[in-house]
Amino acid sequence: xxxxxxxxxxxxxxxxxxxxxxxxxxxxxxxxxxxxxxxxxxxxxxxxxxxxxxxxxxxxxxxxxxxxxxxxxxxxxxxxxxxxxxxxxxxxxxxxxxxxxxxxxxxxxxxxxxxxxxxxxxxxxxxxxxxxxxxxxxxxxxxxxxxxxxxxxxxxxxxxxxxxxxxxxxxxxxxxx
Length: 177
Hints:
- It is a single chain.
- By secondary structure, this protein is mainly α.
- 37% of the residues lie in helices and 5% in strands.
């Protein structure tokens, strides 16, 4: 992950002293089967690239719990239930209900729409609108300077023009017009 020993130790200290697991760096493991259609592989690859490039713009639509590291969309009042294999819907013949599939045309449209949504979202404007609706709940203001010094990700408060905590070492990418 490219963390120096000092940053690693600082993260461990914050996790222990502030009970804050939300600063741990994360990663995603993606597995593809040999029979996955090329169009689906291409869609997944393009979606990952799009989220890496534009996903930060959606940060302000989510609430972040720094203690657990859980991100929840502003529309959710409660944490969604954890899904497990035991909760699959089985038919009478003991076979799982098949998932709904999108056509390759649907994948292209979904990707295009998702990229357009990310590119057109202004995080600062989302905060303003959430404040007006009363749904904006900043969660990281009371954490230490060490927390802000070692957190690896953007949080909604990074897009507030009047934030009163230490900014990330790396500023959010500029908004494109």
